[in-house]
Amino acid sequence: MFKQSLEKIVSNTADAIGAILMGYDGIGIESFRNPDNDTDMTLMGIEYSNTVKEIRNTAEILQNGELEEVSIKTDRYYVIIRHLTAEYFAALVLKRSGNFGQGRYQLLKESYGLREALLG
Amino acid sequence: MFKQSLEKIVSNTADAIGAILMGYDGIGIESFRNPDNDTDMTLMGIEYSNTVKEIRNTAEILQNGELEEVSIKTDRYYVIIRHLTAEYFAALVLKRSGNFGQGRYQLLKESYGLREALLG
User: Fold this and answer.
1) Which residues of A29-42 are buried (b: 16+ CB within 10 A; e: fewer)?
2) Is the complex ipTM higher than 0.95?
């Protein structure tokens, strides 16, 4: 189920590179990569899991409420990270030519099913 | 000049709480807070400066290119962070009722002048 969800997010987003479902402990559960691309989604997930952990801690310290989403824009990529449960998050990586709004929406849309499956 | 820029960003964004200009070393240069609000912008800036530093390092490790923008959405706030120079960034904090797209745009618009003034 996880793989299909990730594939749906990637296929429905223009210029998406890949998507990953991952634990905040850096352990990847599932990933889907656009076959056109050789980006190492697992490595990316591990690196960003630390970042998201840090952001969660910061939000907690500042009593900013629970983390929902983080977007990172570099001159090469968009990375959109969606908090799912206390232990898991999903991330989508797009080329800069990709559609950021579409990516956010697709990730959000699939996040409900992913969350349910993780908790269920 | 810095204060006016920050004030412009906050005044032109619906439900903005405040904006800050800050070094990646956590030292605040200038801030402007919506008078309706008592959020501690400096504390927020210090905490998020660590986060942004971490994200920059991650992007570097992954050769993801230079960091441009980070957005964080919690169930209470939006935080939009714009990279300015090797040493400085600007951040805008909005209520969740605020207009995220408008905030991103206002921050981007003022970032050119801020960057020039910082480098100049």
Assistant:
1) bbbbbbeeeebebb
2) no
